[in-house]
Amino acid sequence: MKVAKWAVLFLAMTLMAVSPVLAKEAIKIGAILAVTGPAAFLGAPEAKTLEMLVAEINKKGGIKGDKIELIIKDSGASPEKAISFAKQLIEEDKVFAIIGPSTSGETMKIKSTAEEGKTILLSCAAAEVIVNPVAKYVFKTPQKDSYAVIKIFEEMKKMGISKIGVLSSNTGFGKAGKEQIEKLAPEHGITILVNEVYDKAASDLTAEVTKLKAANVEALLNWSIEPAQSIVIKNARQIGLTVPIFQSHGFGNIEYVKAAGAAAEGVIFPAGRLLVADTLPKSNPQKAVLIKYKKDYETKYKEDASTFGGHAYDAFMILAKAIETAGTDREKVRDAIENLKGFIGTGGVFNFSAQDHNGLDINSFEMLTVKNGKFALLPEPATPKKK
Amino acid sequence: MTRNRHLQVFLLIAVIIATQLATMLTDTQHYLTQLTMSGYYALVIIGLCLLIGYAGQISLGHAGFFAIGGYTSAFLTTYDLSPVRDKAFIVLLSRMGLLVSTEDLYGGQVLHLHPWAAFLIAIICTIIIAYAVGGPVLKLKGHYLAMATLGFGTIVYKVVLGTEGLGAADGISDVPGFTLLPGSEVSGKLSQRITNYYIAWGLVIFGMVLLLNLVHSRVGRALRSIHGAEDAANAMGINTGRYKLNMFVISAVFAAIGGVFLTHYNGGIGPSEASIMKSVRYVAIVAVGGMANLWGALVMGSVLNFLSLRGYFGSYDDAVFGVILIIIMLFTPEGLLRRDLFSDIREVFGTGKDRGERA
Amino acid sequence: MNIELFLQYLVAGVTYGTIYAIVAIGFNIIYNTTGIINFAQGEFVMLGGMTAVTLHAFLPLPAAILSAVIITMIVGAMIEITFIRWLASPSVLRMIIITIGISILLREIALHVWGAGVKALPYFTGTAVSSISIGDVHISPQVLWVVGVSSVMVICLNLFFSYTQPGRKMRACSTNRTAARLCGINTKNMVTLSFVLSAGIGALAGCVVSPITYIQYDGGTALAIKGFTVAILGGLGNSMAAVAAGLILGILESFSIWVMPTAFKDVISISILLLILFVRPSGLFGSKEAAQLKEF
Fold it and tell me: Is B41:B72 a contact under the CB 8 Å cutoff?
């Protein structure tokens, strides 16, 4: 796998060396991704997705005859490296656009650099602050955290739940979710009885869930993206906490379901439709895109496609689409992205505007559950459970 | 000896100017960005070199001091005081000219503490913490010292990561530039690139001169005696404890200054700057540089950080530093660039029982 | 807080504590024979777990665990022979740096071999949700496995050090290496043996705890820091004290959640460690006099 990556890198380098001979200059696209380090579960599939897409497009002859040259920089989720790489890509490689970074902390650090360098930045990080307030050149493809929270709260309302316990991890993902939960809970008539942050490397969370049990919560809402989210549900079930368990869209990785085994059954969480692509009705506009991406990725890399790789897919395809319509003038491409409507991606249907640099609405999330060790759409209406 | 030292410093200044001119002539000015950043890391590393190489005390928590400096300054210069601008204390600060108002990315106004004031507070905090921690920690030896400093580093990391006011996992963004003198500010703006290069390396020159004078003074001789045989030094009437503590504080301040300036230059700081891996990396670079060799630490500190920041190590960044550590410690525990090839080699590293490196 | 909750926290604490103790014992074995702290001990735990998961794909569970332990032991021996054996009385600082380097290296190798994904062995008995209930207190059967295996391990180690020839030789090394060498004990072999032993213990720990905690390429560091804390808390080199210290720390952490935010759980445990280091560097159960005689 690594060898393959090096091979691709090498290929890219040779291409770069030969490209002047190939007459037309390639469009340079930079990517700053956390391929290794603590956020590798985001960056690694994102990098693989981009490599796959670029190879595919170049095989077809590029975008309107222009080949794409991809420069991936591994930031290891360190903001200082992301800053250095962003400046390098903008000032030195003079890239057309940057895809990434994978995490919100890094994105916030390079936002002003991208603005100053007038370079389009398509972030793969979820936090709302990236596009709110709107910065001219900064876009993002993952769905907003607030939508995920609202989806969950609406589901809770249907099930008659009002008192919940919230657990989140001490990462950017956990923090962003926690903030939205705290902000939105009052509007939806939800009371947070327990609100705990645990370490992302936590090995056992029995004590935390015991605290929830003691507070007699009606549901457990966990917001994290690390293995700890499987540990939480396991420990909860072990100590006999039988209330419904809600997770964030970070749960959309089948590895965590496998790890949690029987405990994962019945967990409810919002996620993009990629995870249930096969079971979507034919009428769903996203179905074709999702199935193609999933199949391509899984045949190429022999591992399950995740929604995170999907964020990079969307970022790249949006950029490609904009270049196709507006040519290779950066300002025009930026305007083209801002005016892009009805673009079908893996995360949902994107409708950008000058006020909305994310372009997704709440319908981009679907409520899912785990059934027999697989992701499935949550049956509607959910059966209200009595505790 | 003294003349030799002056010559070295002049050589350093010449190299710094030559590098800038070279980038200008070859139109590769973008290298200055990473060179500036590695300058600040080099500042941390020469400070740590003083502690490890000359005072013989390991610290696996120096990234903690870097973070204390950086975070204090970042917090104080981003915390918006406008909602409380009528409070007596704030009015007082404002009258003293300690507050400035800057425009953020979206056109809003942020009223915050002046960077100079924030800088001073950051350094004072560092000195207090360094004395408080260093006092008891430096009484320990060997594994206990390593573990205690590691523990300190971990605490700083976890506090930074767990405190919402410090941005938790996201860190602090949108830190304004640090106006040193009118017209020259520490910030990542393109127009200030050359100025910032000289600010960073000017600090490094200043730091080097200070440290070189220190290690060649009476203090330096006392330090070397501590490193060689602490008990003997004690018996000779050298207050080893006080010397060690002062060196610890000096190296902490160097780290904190690096932290403050780099945070303003980058416009933000994240928890990764406080991580244990960062501390280990600093130790690795000091080791490669030759432990008790300030020039080695400086050269290696700037070269390795420059390569790392340019992304030359790709996904093997941490692995590279791990391998460097092992190889250097196995084969040349005195480091690649030795202070003096002909004498003191054994003394440079180890506690005296370190005779005959290889069996 | 009612009695059930109290007991439930206690059970959680015992689970944490046993995991910490089992890692701390690995530290102690190497420390005893060599006087060095092996910062790569956490990586042995990770390697053991990872190898077992990989082997479990085509081997039954007990065979997979056994092979994983043996493989990790071989890795331990190889590490000692390659990096440590030929160094004549290296200084403590040098050994600390070398073992840190080894730990980084093992972690990076694991990352490139197994990827960043999370792995776990299945529960030895029952499933992820099964638990043994005593009144309102619930215990996962795996916790009993962890406690059981650790107890057996501690007993076996004690027997090994008291009654077998190699065990006694290792103890002789720990008391006085030079004297042991003069008595005809091959101290170098004893050091290798200590690495093999602690790698094996780490690997077994990794296998037993992996259903509970999961294994990830960088999971070793967090465990190592906790294990190290416990080893020092109990007094370096004292395995029985490590068990007690582990339980104390685990229970303390578990109950701390009841009264304050979990985000600072580790800050508390490390602060306790620093306090102990400043006040009683010989550990809770170590004797001050003995500590002064030890080489650092």
Answer: no
Handedness of CA C68, C74, C78, C79 (dihedral sign): positive
Minimal Cβ distance to C277: which of B144, B158, B280: B144
CATH number of B2-78+115-348: 1.10.3470
Q: For residue B216, what is the DSSP state?
A: T
* Helical axes A79-87 vs B294-309, angle rounded to 10°: 70
Q: How far apart are CA B346 and CA B357, in angstroms?
A: 9
Peptide bond into A133 cis (omega under 30): yes
On whether the C11-117+135-293 domain is CATH 1.10.246, my answer is: no
**Chain C residues close to A213, C-beta within 8 Å:** 5, 8
Q: Which tokens sit at B208?
A: 């080097």
The residues with which A247 forms a beta bridge, in sequence order, are: A222
Q: What residue spans define the domains of chain B?
A: 2-78+115-348
B-chain residue closest to C224, CA distance: B147
CB pairs below 8 Å between A and C: how many?
118
| Residue (of B211, B176, B177) closest to B196 by Cα position | B177
Q: Which two tokens stand for residue B133?
A: 């921690």
Give the closest-approach CA distance of B229 to chain A in angstroms: 40
Dihedral angle computed from the Cα positions of residues B221, B222, B227 and B230, in that order, rounded to the nearest 10 degrees? 150
Residue A53: how many CB atoms within 10 A of its CB?
Answer: 21
Cα angle for residues B313, B319, B322 (degrees, 5° grid): 125
Lookup: tokens for C156? 């076996």
How far apart are the CA of A83 and the nearest CA of chain B, in angstroms? 7
Per-residue pLDDT of chain C (296 residues; tens, 9 = 90+): 678 778 888 888 888 888 888 888 888 888 887 778 888 899 999 999 999 999 998 899 999 999 999 999 999 999 999 888 888 777 777 888 888 899 999 988 998 888 877 888 888 887 777 778 877 788 888 888 888 988 898 889 888 888 998 888 888 887 777 888 888 888 888 889 989 999 999 999 899 988 888 888 888 888 888 888 888 888 887 778 888 999 999 888 888 877 777 777 788 888 888 888 888 777 777 665 555 544 44
Rg, chain A, Cα only: 21
* Residue B34 near chain A (CB below 8 Å): yes
Q: Which residues of B touch A36 (CB under 8 A)?
A: 315, 317-318
Question: B202 CB contacts (<8 Å, ≥6 apart)?
Answer: none
Task: Specify whether the CB–CB gap between B5 and B205 falls below 8 A.
Answer: no
Q: Report the CATH superfamily, name and number, of domain A2-143+286-356.
A: Response regulator (3.40.50.2300)
Q: Crossing angle for the helix pair A287-301 and A40-59, nearest 10 degrees?
A: 100
For chain A, give every domain's residue range: 2-143+286-356, 145-271+366-377
What does the alpha-carbon distance between residue B271 and residue A200 come to, in Å, rounded to a whole number? 14
Task: Give the C-alpha separation, C236 to C214, whole Å.
Answer: 28
Percentages helix, strand, coil for chain B, rounded to the nearest 5? 70, 5, 25
* C-alpha dihedral sign at C191, C193, C195, C201: negative
Identify the H or E element spanning C132.
Answer: strand C132-134
Q: Which residue does chain B place closest to C221, by CA atoms?
A: B276
* pTM of the predicted model as reported, rounded to 2 decimal places: 0.87
Give ipTM to 2 decimals: 0.85
Residue type, position C41, single letter? Q
How many Å separate Cα C162 from the centre of its chain? Answer: 21
Q: What is the DSSP letter of B172?
A: B
Measure the CA–CA gap between A347 and A361, rounded to whole angstroms: 10
Query: By the 8 A CB rule, do C137 and A214 touch?
Result: no
Spatial contact of C24 and C231, defined as CB atoms under 8 Å apart: yes
Locate the domains of chain C by residue range.
11-117+135-293
CATH code for A145-271+366-377? 3.40.50.2300
* Short-list C219, C217, A4, CA closest to B319: C217
